[in-house]
């Protein structure tokens, strides 16, 4: 099988590329990535010389390039991870989210349709469902009710994918996963930000009352689910992905401090995120029952391994936490 993976130099995409090269050594993988602030070829340094793997720098919104790649590499399946992915950045600069997440997806869909590839898989998010109260879960039937420019752009893309299925009969799948964590997670997101700030002795900025709930899944278990969807997903179907690991933000922050032997005095409650969704929780029954998925990680083993990874890979995160990152950080948190 020949796969075009877009956004493969980011957090989840790079873990997925590595997972697929190990699991399916005969597959060929082309990774197309624009290398925005979030894309990093260091994330795939260990596979760069694998003859089954090719990297191409480019934009998913470049129709000519996409058509050329589909032809040249005789692509069977396109898996779209490429996106602007950070909610906070979407609140300050929504424009690029519309351009990449919606227009970029439309360009990919059009190219996939014109070239008649076997399958298109859109990597979406549970955030398209909006926010839950204290009980209940997101199922695939939960109405879309996104609250941030980021989640609205992802919901827009999902609707386009489903429209291409209905209109042109394209073989598509959408996956909607909960919050991922694991190696190569960019340190603007909660878990890597808190681990690296704690290691640097910096304050840990917790939004609002710290009681918002996220449902965490190890990135490897996400990759495993996408692999199943590629091979066994029914045309036109959406699959939620999550492992029933709900945690309050403050519990995670305290766990990280405890494991690193750092003081809780580093915690700083800061102004809440605008439109901050209160709770996410996934019902993964469709994926477990229809496709036979089960996660390998518990949250406890996954977070312990992840903290170890950041301890062992200080050069990776220190090189990111400089330059442009520091400009972003001081704008977002009002301090260096
Ligand atoms: P990320 O920000 O780490 O990586 C995004 C990648 O896309 C980067 O490598 C970036 O360079 C690339 N990219 C951005 N714009 C591009 C463009 N126009 N053309 C080509 N490449 C471009 O994001 P992530 O956390 O790895 O998320 C990947 C996907 O998974 C996203 O679609 C996101 O919505 C979805 N998702 C993320 C999570 C999560 O917890 N992080 C959960 C569910 C779904
Ligand atoms: O649910 C899936 C989504 O998870 C993905 O679609 C997004 O791409 C991904 O970024 C993530 O979105 P969240 O907004 O849930 O993740 P983030 O790590 O930004 O925040 C997690 C929680 O932690 C959220 O309630 C906000 C809070 N938070 C975050 C940051 C960065 C803080 O309290 N302080 C912070 O500094």
TrEMBL record:
Name of the top EC class for this enzyme: lyase
Cofactor(s) the protein needs: NAD(+)
GO biological process: nucleotide-sugar metabolic process
InterPro entries: dTDP_Gluc_deHydtase, NAD(P)-bd_dom, NAD(P)-bd_dom_sf
Record flagged with keyword NAD: yes
Gene Ontology MF term list: dTDP-glucose 4,6-dehydratase activity
Keywords, comma-separated and alphabetical: Lyase, NAD
SUPFAM superfamilies the record matches: NAD(P)-binding Rossmann-fold domains (SSF51735)
One Pfam family matching this protein: GDP_Man_Dehyd
Source taxon at top rank: Bacteria
EC assignment: 4.2.1.46
Domain NAD(P)-binding: 4-306
Protein family per UniProt: Belongs to the NAD(P)-dependent epimerase/dehydratase family. dTDP-glucose dehydratase subfamily.
PANTHER family on file: DTDP-D-GLUCOSE 4,6-DEHYDRATASE-RELATED
Protein name: dTDP-glucose 4,6-dehydratase
């Amino acid at each position: 099988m020949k796969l075009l993976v877009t956004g493969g130099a980011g957090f989840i995409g790079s873990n997925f590329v590595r997972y697929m090269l190990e699991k399916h050594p005969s597959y060929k993988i082309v990774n197309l990535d624009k290398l925005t602030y979030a894309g990093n070829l260091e994330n795939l340094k260990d596979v760069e010389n694998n003859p089954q793997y090719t990297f191409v720098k480019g934009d998913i919104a470049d129709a000519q390039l996409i058509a050329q790649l589909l032809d040249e590499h005789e692509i069977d399946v396109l898996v779209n991870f490429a996106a602007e992915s950070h909610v906070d950045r979407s609140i300050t600069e929504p424009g690029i989210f519309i351009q990449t997440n919606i227009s970029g997806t439309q360009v990919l869909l059009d190219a996939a349709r014109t070239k008649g590839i076997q399958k298109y898989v859109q990597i979406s998010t549970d955030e398209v469902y909006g926010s839950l109260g204290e009980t209940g879960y997101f199922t695939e039937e939960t109405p879309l009710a996104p609250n941030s420019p980021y989640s609205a752009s992802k919901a827009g893309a999902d609707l386009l994918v489903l429209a291409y299925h209905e209109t042109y009969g394209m073989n598509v799948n959408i996956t909607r996963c909960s919050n991922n964590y694991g190696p190569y997670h960019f340190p603007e997101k909660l878990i890597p930000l808190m681990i690296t700030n704690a290691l640097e002795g910096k304050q840990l900025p917790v939004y609002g009352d710290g009681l918002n709930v996220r449902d965490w899944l190890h990135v490897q278990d996400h990759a495993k689910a996408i692999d199943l969807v590629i091979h066994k997903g029914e045309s036109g179907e959406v699959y939620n992905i999550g492992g029933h690991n709900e945690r309050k933000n403050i519990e995670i922050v305290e766990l990280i401090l405890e494991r690193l032997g750092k003081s809780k005095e580093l915690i700083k409650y800061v102004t809440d995120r605008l439109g901050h969704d209160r709770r996410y929780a996934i019902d993964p029954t469709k994926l477990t029952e229809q496709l036979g998925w089960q996660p390998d990680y518990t949250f406890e083993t996954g977070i312990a391994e992840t903290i170890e990874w950041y301890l062992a890979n200080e050069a990776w995160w220190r090189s990111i936490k400089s330059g442009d990152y520091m400009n972003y950080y001081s704008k977002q948190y009002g301090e260096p």
